[in-house]
Amino acid sequence: MNEISFRQLEYFVAAAETGSVTAAAAKVHLTQSAVSTALSELEENLGVQLFLRHARGLKLTTPGRQALADARRLLSGVDELRDSAREVQSSLSGSLVVGCYSTLAAVLLPRVIADFVARYPDVDLNVIEGSDQHLVGQLRGVGCDLALMYEADEFRLAKDLRMTALYAAEPYVLLSRHHPLAARDAIGVADLAPEPMILFDLPPGATYFLSLFKEAGLTPHVRYRATNFEMVRSLVAHGLGYAVLTQRPTIPISYDGLELVTRPLAPRRPGLNVGLVRLAGLRPSRRAVAFAEQCARTLGATIDSFHG
């Protein structure tokens, strides 16, 4: 078998990301024939067909999707090797892709990003948002280097994922200013169960919020479900029900200007851990470690070694 080169892997990743030989050739500044030849040689060396070729471009086969994840891991390792050759920490540069659970993105991430880019201006930082399933898929496909997320059972059970906790976000009750329960200093799940609930239905949030009632032997009256954080807040503001949430925006109004109030959930419950998730089997780059350390500084958290 002929030797597989990193150039072939780079052209393969470019072709997979752009969906055509023409676009890949433009991206890597080569001729179409050179890229096409490199892809054919890579398929021959691997002994699998990586693409289905059709008039509209290229489509990854099942072996091709797995090879793409592996190729990205190998290329990431080469980037890290280049970075490791630099002795000065302040000279950190290169690309870093950070995933973030959607409700954490607007509340936490801008502060971290502002501090990080001020400290490491040469790092090309990009952010992707989504649900926990989407972000785990991105991590496993090496579409992002690390992700800021809530802890879920998947992280505790999956051997290929590792989470470094930053802090625990305690649940609270969100109400319209005119809701009858808004006059109370604290509210129990027994008080909430008969009331209409607006459930934030983006995993792992929904499972966690419902578990608070299940532990007390209660079933909440879920009136509406929404996967958008501000949709939940707006429905509550219009008096259509209450919500149990963990993230607290500092502005106590909905998007359409209606007042909201928050009350503690009694008795206090263990919070839902917020932390950084990465692939356990892939050594994080110095850029990723620097970002993890910046998260801890900005959020006032203490973390164990992110790369250990």
UniProtKB/TrEMBL annotation:
GO molecular function, one term: DNA-binding transcription factor activity
DNA-binding is among the record's keywords: yes
Highest taxon listed in the record's lineage: Bacteria
HTH lysR-type domain segment(s): 4-61
SUPFAM superfamilies xref list: Periplasmic binding protein-like II (SSF53850), Winged helix' DNA-binding domain (SSF46785)
Keywords from the UniProt entry: DNA-binding, Transcription, Transcription regulation
GO cellular component: protein-DNA complex
Pfam families the UniProt entry points to: HTH_1 (PF00126), LysR_substrate (PF03466)
InterPro entries in the cross-refs: LysR_HTH_N (IPR000847), LysR_subst-bd (IPR005119), WH-like_DNA-bd_sf (IPR036388), WH_DNA-bd_sf (IPR036390)
Keyword Transcription regulation in record: yes
Gene3D superfamilies reported for this sequence: Periplasmic binding protein-like II, Winged helix-like DNA-binding domain superfamily/Winged helix DNA-binding domain
Family per similarity comment: Belongs to the LysR transcriptional regulatory family.
Protein name, UniProt field: LysR family transcriptional regulator
Protein species of origin: Streptomyces tagetis
